[in-house]
Amino acid sequence: MINKERFEQLFNQQLIKDISEEEINIVLSGQYGRALELLRDAEATGLFPALVGPPGVGKTILCRYFASLRAKENKNKSFHWLTMDESIKPSHFIGSFDPAITLKKGFVLEAFNPGPLLSAMLEGGTFLANEINRATEYSQNTLLEPLEEASIGIPHLGRIKADDDFFFISAMNPEELSGTHRLSEALKDRIKVWIRLTYPEKSTELDIIRINLPEHFVIDESELELIYTIIEETRRNKIDIEVPASIRAGIALAKLLARRKYLEQKGEIKEKKSMYEYLSEITRHVLLGSIKPKPGIKVENVIENIIHKTLGV
Ligand SMILES: Nc1ncnc2c1ncn2[C@@H]1O[C@H](COP(=O)(O)OP(=O)(O)OP(=O)(O)O)[C@@H](O)[C@H]1O
Ligand SMILES: [Mg+2]
Fold first, then answer.
1. pLDDT, tens digit, for every residue of 53-93?
2. Atom 11 of ligand 1: nearest residue by CA position
3. Which domains does the chain have, with CATH numbers?
4. Ligand approaching nearest to the C-alpha of 252
């Protein structure tokens, strides 16, 4: 195990003190620029927005970027986020009493560890409730007061008012994909700006792949095009595929291909293969967990069909 001193040293070195310090490499063409504008409109009018889209279309990165802009403008206001699921209780986002201190001193402020929502409310920061439609009704209900009244009641401590700059964003996968709890009507009614994100248009997605490649990894435009063709094929084949490849899969393919080429250039690969052979190999490894076939359909067969269709191998 890492020793305590080393742990503290590394932790302090790596601690992100506020979101405005973070460098976020984001592509803002197409839907992302429009979505950012809508987030700004929502903020300016005091309305709460939701980002709705399938996995890996850039909901989180857009929120982080938006929060970092706010942080820079509003003098370092914080960004907090939490991914909801059925095991999340209100105490996870509001906060809870430390049992050891509470035992000694009772339910005093000193014993309370604030959660991410309460922190954002006090600091006037941005709170992102990721996968909000997976939260239980109990958790969803706890969000009603912060959204409607900009306040929240904390057991034993009282009711606090949020800073005027507090901002709440939610993100979710479309209900038909998530198969989880629905968003309660009461909560839905408090979210007033619905922003849909989907798989981006080609030029935007290619830019996203490029921006996510490490500097020393280079791939040609023709290779990038092929990668896009593979990814797009998973989205086109709606008969066999329930959830297609996200942007993450394209980034992964590009990284793996670029690394092979890098090693090849350095003379570290003995058995050379054609680009098509490399790409089909990599595609098998990446797509295996990146697509979800329809019930009764074998993922391996779907992948082989895609490889055959797009790469001809
Ligand atoms: N506009 C963009 N610019 C740069 N990179 C992007 C952009 N959109 C998505 N990405 C990249 O794609 C990947 C997935 O994005 P992100 O994690 O934001 O998706 P998500 O919609 O939050 O997914 P999930 O539903 O699984 O949480 C990340 O690696 C991210 O860096
Ligand atoms: Mg996300």
1. 999 999 999 999 998 898 888 766 788 999 999 999 999 99
2. 58
3. 4-196 (3.40.50.300), 202-311 (1.10.8.80)
4. 1
